[in-house]
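Here is one chain, start to finish.
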Amino acid sequence: MDNIASNICSPGDLITTDPAFMGGHGIYTTDNNKYASVVGYVTKVNNLFLVQPINTRYIGDVGDVVVGRITAVDTSRWRVDINSTLDAMLPLTSVNLPGGELRRRSEEDERMMRHYFVENDLISAEVQNVHSDGSLSLHTRNLNYGKLGQGCLIQVSSPLIKRQKVHFVNLPCGVSIILGRNGNIWVTSTSIQESSRKNGGFTPLLKPVTLNERENISRICNCIKALAKHHVLLYDTSICTAFEISKQYQIKEILDPKIAQEIAEKTEIQLAADS
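Its structure:
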């Protein structure tokens, strides 16, 4: 990129003058120069530049990890709000039965759907299919996915979530994070996350959370909010770096505008130095 000091650009900003690069969504070309047409985050995929708008609905891709909320129980499927233009669908055939049974779903399974997920349940899932109208189909055929119990949900702009191979992160401080590509981030205790996987993803473990775990969860949540407010990409390394930097402050002080800005700036400097 030329003349782009950060990952954020405004309409008219010059992205590149190299004719070898192509322009995708959010970019227009004039005299072989590529310019941004929207306010957003500049991303580069091979020889293609894209600009993702800051405030936009989630547009899913197959394989994306998402965190969503059940909005309705229909015939043989659940509707899930994942911050997209349309509710996603979670078919009954795309969830693991309790006990890991492998068999065809019956009418009895349909009658038992509310024993699995009900309205307002938070779940983690994976995008299985993208339909022509933009709607998504999900699945939870993995012990990593399922109902979420004790923890904190943070909602940020979906382009802030950096695409990685692994979106389930266990931090050294005993906190687990699910970085949903749809902008929903789930923060919980690692011990609770591991126990929920053993329960098959339908019965969240309800057990006391220690004071130290609660403080670490709160600190991580505030660090994520501080980074998101200043448009820093969210992934395991950036969150860990912000967590270490924030230790000189009390948990409630992290959300102070000046301190939040300082943490975000120091995090970006540290990430740039490490890279």
